[in-house]
Amino acid sequence: MASERVSRQRLPLWAALLIFFVVLTIGSVSATAFSWLMLARQIVIDVNVPEKMQATAQKIAQFPQPLPEGYKYLMAANFEIMQCMVIEHEPSGQQIAFYSLPGPTTDKDSKIFLDRAFEAGINTTYLAAKFHEVKSNGTIPLLGQQMNYLLGEFTDLSTNHKGDGFVATIGLNKAAKNILIYSYPVRDHAYNQQVTMNLLNSLKGF
């Protein structure tokens, strides 16, 4: 039973959305539903294509091209109404996951969103983990916006390995969307927040 629970929790957000699109199509014969299926199929095809990953990245934020030395794209998916992407910093064994989501963007909304994201834990294609301790929190100015963040200790649901991870949210009023960021180490590396900030500080805008 425990292994079944872990398996369910490891389903990444973008994969869950793909399943939703497929179910929507099965339940309807409309042209709209069929177009969703075609979109889902294309997302699967494009998820690891370098040019497509770069294009999706630009819908989230103005990332430098190429990325700073040591960073590389691992995957990206564009669902039109939302985008997600994972970047890895190879020297430190650290990954930074970005989600661009529509929704309320006031500072209060952003903080509520942050608390919910922290409670939900990390759920990417590369790591499923739950936070169990807050170590620090605060606000960091970034490109004229306020980034709310929490730094905490998590437990990997597959290995029970403990590590530190970073969760942040940025509410973009003009774009009417939120940016959700998870940053975490993989392969038993220690978390280094400066690796996260170096990438964020390389952005040209939102």
How would you describe what is shown here?
The chain has 206 residues and is α+β, with helices and mostly antiparallel strands. Helices cover 35% and strands 35% of the residues. It has one domain (49-201): Protein Transport Mog1p, Chain A. Strands 1-2-3-8-7-6-5-4 form an eight-stranded antiparallel β-sheet, with helices on both faces. A hairpin with a 4-residue loop joins strand 1 (71-78) and strand 2. Helix 2 (13-26) packs antiparallel against helix 3. The protein starts with a helix and ends in a 5-residue tail after the last helix. The model is unreliable at 1-11 and 16-41 (pLDDT under 50).
Task: Describe the secondary structure blueprint for this structure.
Layout: H1 2-9, H2 13-26, H3 31-46, H4 50-60, E1 71-78, E2 83-89, E3 94-102, H5 107-120, E4 122-123, E5 128-142, E6 145-156, E7 162-172, E8 177-185, H6 193-201
Antiparallel strand pairs: 1-2, 2-3, 3-8, 4-5, 5-6, 6-7, 7-8
Largest sheet: 8 strands, antiparallel
CATH architecture field: 3-Layer(aba) Sandwich
Q: Would you state the CATH class?
A: Alpha Beta
What is the overall shape?
globular
Radius of gyration: 17 Å
Number of strands: 8
What percent of the residues sit in helical stretches (DSSP H or I)? Answer: 25-40%
End-to-end C-alpha gap: 43 Å
**Average pLDDT for all residues:** 81
Count of domain modules: 1
| Uncertain stretches of 5 or more adjacent residues | 1-11, 16-41
Counting helices, strands and paired strands, the structural category is: alpha+beta
In which order are the strands of the major sheet placed? 1-2-3-8-7-6-5-4
The SSE string, one letter per element, is: HHHHEEEHEEEEEH
Query: Which strand-content bin applies to the residues?
Result: 35-45%
